[in-house]
Amino acid sequence: xxxxxxxxxxxxxxxxxxxxxxxxxxxxxxxxxxxxxxxxxxxxxxxxxxxxxxxxxxxxxxxxxxxxxxxxxxxxxxxxxxxxxxxxxxxxxxxxxxxxxxxxxxxxxxxxxxxxxxxxxxxxxxxxxxxxxxxxxxxxxxxxxxxxxxxxxxxxxxxxxxxxxxxxxxxxxxxxxxxxxxxxxxxxxxx
Length: 191
Description:
By secondary structure, this protein is of the alpha+beta class. The protein is built from 7 helices and 6 strands; from the N terminus they run αααααααββββββ. The protein is 40% helix and 12% strand. The strands form 2 sheets. The protein has a 4-stranded antiparallel sheet, covered by helices on one side. Strands 1-4 form a two-stranded antiparallel ribbon. A hairpin with a 2-residue loop joins β2 and β3 (156-159). α3 packs antiparallel against α7 (133-140) and α4 (98-104) packs across α6 (120-130). 43% of the residues are buried.
């Protein structure tokens, strides 16, 4: 039991580091123009939610992103749009698609980086190693129960871990709950 608690605490810490240390990809290097995000209430209170960071392209692995291009079309500013984006994140987490994971969790990254945490690519690489093969498989097809999603404002949606439906069971200590916010025509994990 003690070993399981230690592993759960470590995964939680890594998940927090990962979510906080990722930034949306930006080929133009204008990372300061995008919104940051955080996995803790104290981090979100201390960071500017309008300037996410971008991990350097040289630090990214060669694994291609499975994120479909969105073009110039803004994402729907709806509960369904937030759910779709969060499912994209969950599936990418299961595939170990670092580019998509860091892009969706980007705003949280700037806050974490400002607090001294490493870049998204290195922290999520550690998290990927802590997710069991069964959990990765389950995440690839996970869905979100819309009935458990909490809409705080039209631009802020909470995704409790209980809303994640998959073949594996996840808890606050291994996956956690997230807040998505609508920033610059897209949904991002901000907390």
